[in-house]
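Tokens in:
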């Protein structure tokens, strides 16, 4: 691995670590919604979220990083010279965010993908730990599909690494239970995804779960007609409509269970 890649990865750990601590403290000092679990159950919930994160963290250097680096070095090579530097990076961030919007939407609309993504939505409370709660299958499928996209669009590794930092920072922020000044959040939400937008995506009402797919910029949902009209309220039930969260082993086994997985395309059928 080139030295600059290691420096960016070290920067990512430092920046994200500080950002994580900020929101962990904020949501404790000034929470927006009342916590849904008492002390014992809350620890159990955190253990599940951080357990899934631990598996993904172990798998990342083994599979996600090599696959991403390989894809970056096998781009189709059609990118013109002007598409580089700061302008190139800005364009790449917008394109990658649009890609993530559609990938997230596909995770809700394609039953096979929802089998994995629902592990993230089974969480019945939200805070910064939900931002890292993903099934390892979803993480690997994401890396594969993103690798293909990188090859097609000729995305350099530097753009992907910067986007990863932006995406994770955004995700920690919009899953957090931090109380923000109303006007500040309203202003921010015109451009980026805030907790008020993303909590509606975790509302245990299927029509809302299948809306508000944005990850960083908030205009994709407006542009592609998937913004929910629901306003977040503090006691809003969180999770998957009609389903309970499961124990750790059953979350991992979830995608391989037989049976139908209701989703946006067949929920009314
Ligand atoms: Zn989702």
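Residues out:
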């Amino acid at each position: 691995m080139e030295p600059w890649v290691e420096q960016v990865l070290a920067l990512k750990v430092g920046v994200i670590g500080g950002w994580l601590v900020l929101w962990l403290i904020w949501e404790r000092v000034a929470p927006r919604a009342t916590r849904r679990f008492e002390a014992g159950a809350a620890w159990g919930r955190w253990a599940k979220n951080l357990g899934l994160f631990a598996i993904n963290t172990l798998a990342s250097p083994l599979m996600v990083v090599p696959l991403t680096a390989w894809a970056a070095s096998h781009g189709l090579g059609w990118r013109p010279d002007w598409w580089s530097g700061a302008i190139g990076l800005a364009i790449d961030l917008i394109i990658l965010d649009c890609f993530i919007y559609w990938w997230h939407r596909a995770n809700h609309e394609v039953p096979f993908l929802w089998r994995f993504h629902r592990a993230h939505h089974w969480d019945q409370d939200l805070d910064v730990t939900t931002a890292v709660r993903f099934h390892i299958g979803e993480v690997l499928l994401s890396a594969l599909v993103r690798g293909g996209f990188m090859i097609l669009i000729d995305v350099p590794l530097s753009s992907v690494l910067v986007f990863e930092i932006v995406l994770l920072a955004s995700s920690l922020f919009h899953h957090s239970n931090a109380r923000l000044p109303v006007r500040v959040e309203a202003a921010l939400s015109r451009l980026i995804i805030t907790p008020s937008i993303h909590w509606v995506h975790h509302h245990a009402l299927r029509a809302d779960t299948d809306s508000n797919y944005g990850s960083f910029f908030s205009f994709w949902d407006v542009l592609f007609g998937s913004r929910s009209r629901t306003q977040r309220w503090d006691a809003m039930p969180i999770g998957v409509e009609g389903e309970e969260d499961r124990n750790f082993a059953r979350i991992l086994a979830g995608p391989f269970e037989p049976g139908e997985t209701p989703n946006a395309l067949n929920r009314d059928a």
